Amino acid sequence: RSSCSSDTDVEMSSYSSSSPASTSKQHQPADHSAVVDVVVAPAESNNENLVGQKQKINTNAEPVVQQRETTLNDSGVGEGGYRMNINESDEGVVESPVLGHSRSVQQNEERLRRKLQFFFMNPIEKWQAKRRFPYKFVVQVIKIILVTLQLCLFAHSRYTHVNYTWDNTITFSHLFLRGWDITMEVSTYPPETGPLSVYVIEDFFKTIDYAIDGYANLSEAIGPYSYPNEDNTMAPMQLCLYRYKDGTIFGFNESYVFNPEIDSLCLDLDGNVTTIGSRKFLHQKDIHINFSALVKAELKFAIKTVNFKAAGPITSPDCYQFDIQILFNNQDHDGQMTLRLEAEPTRLVCHGDVEFIKKSQFDDALRSILNILVILICIVSFALCARAIYRAQLLRIIT
């Protein structure tokens, strides 16, 4: 027994003398992709299983280092059931490929979650998150301010124009419509009075004569009205008659002659019509009105005026031409011919004082600059919106 133990001691001492090389191999830096088991085996060892016999180790042989990849589960236990400690090194934590892939997926999900969260933030929240100047929010604020200013100027201009047109229509009704009353100026429901109408032939011609006299005495009106001619002379009024080509009624024996085709006849009322009257004037022209066939009649003339409006120091006056039309409506043929006056305004180019024209040009320049700024800011806003939609589509594809 003593000889055997001595032989064993020699063998183990020789094995221990060669173990530092293997120990240095074990403490080499490990690869991060897998855990390495270091197994030291003699170069010329017998691979057979020795039961009850001693295995003699060749002390002259160099140890061979065999590397074997071992997969660890979450608790750090290897395939053989043994546990290994994973220590941190200077290069990072050694972990398995499964854990690395799982962590990479989690990082991608977190990154995508942050992108979605940032995309649906409002500009203030984005500024609080990244401290980046919210230029898109500023662009929208500037656009709202400029567009609102433009709409206010346009609404003020349109209101002034419409209000001025309506007031002049009321004035023309008083000047040129026979039988016009102040109760007709306000539209109420139900109306306080019936429609302005004529019921006898004499009133028809008197209404035409009343309009002709009012137009001839235009200079007596309070408003600054003028004739459309360059020398401010009275232009001839135009009377248009729209009649059925043939329309004769014999009510006593319930018979008629009727052709539904409508003919129109327009003629100018010269200056002498104011002295002889419209009825004699038409008789001289051999024009006879059959009221059974008369559909409607229109009396047309034009008036020029200038609107001195106190809307500001840089707001220039407006020049207008009103195309006035007095309509005698007999389409129902019920014995009531209704009257209506229409005034269609047309804005003209004014030729006023030179100094004020310069101010007017300055006003036009400011409005043009405002319009250009609105166009530019709307283009920028459209580009930003298109960019946001494009990024949203990319994010939709990713998710």
From TrEMBL:
Stretches that traverse the bilayer: 369-390
Limits of the Mucolipin extracytosolic domain: 162-350
Domain of life: Eukaryota
Segments for region (Disordered): 1-32
Pfam families tied to this protein: MCLN_ECD
Keyword set includes Cell cycle: no
Record GO terms (molecular function): NAADP-sensitive calcium-release channel activity
Keywords for this protein: Membrane, Transmembrane, Transmembrane helix
InterPro entries: MCLN_ECD (IPR049134), Mucolipin (IPR039031)
Compositional bias ranges of the Low complexity kind: 1-24
GO cellular component: lysosomal membrane; plasma membrane
PANTHER family linked to this entry: MUCOLIPIN, SD02261P
The protein, known as: Mucolipin-3
Organism: Culex pipiens (House mosquito)
